[in-house]
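Readers outside the structure-tokenisation community will struggle with the description of the input data as it stands. Showing the layout once, in full, would remove most of the difficulty. For illustration, here is how one protein appears when written out as sequence plus structure tokens:
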Amino acid sequence: MCRICPDAKILLFGIFPRGEGKNDPVFGAPIAEINAGIAKLDDGVNVFYCDITGELLEKDGTLSREIMPDLLHPSAKGYEIWATAIRPYVEKFVK
């Protein structure tokens, strides 16, 4: 906890999916494992975890170039998805 701002709220996002798909060594399991570790930091009071992997992937589990054209960085549509995920936290904690 921060001594300077003890009531600060921290929103941690899971690492976004990246890569070509299930055959890509960084796709899937490695990211899920890291995200599971990040999720443990959520204390429900000051630190909150949000994983939007499901919103970024297609129904077949692949990453769309419409959402991440280079399979790493979000497009405008990807940023819209991210912003939508942030909104409830902002509305809850910024008054």
Observations:
- The helical segments are 29-39, 53-56, 76-93.
- The longest strand covers residues 10-13.
- The beta strands are 10-13, 47-50.
- The chain has a mean pLDDT of 90.
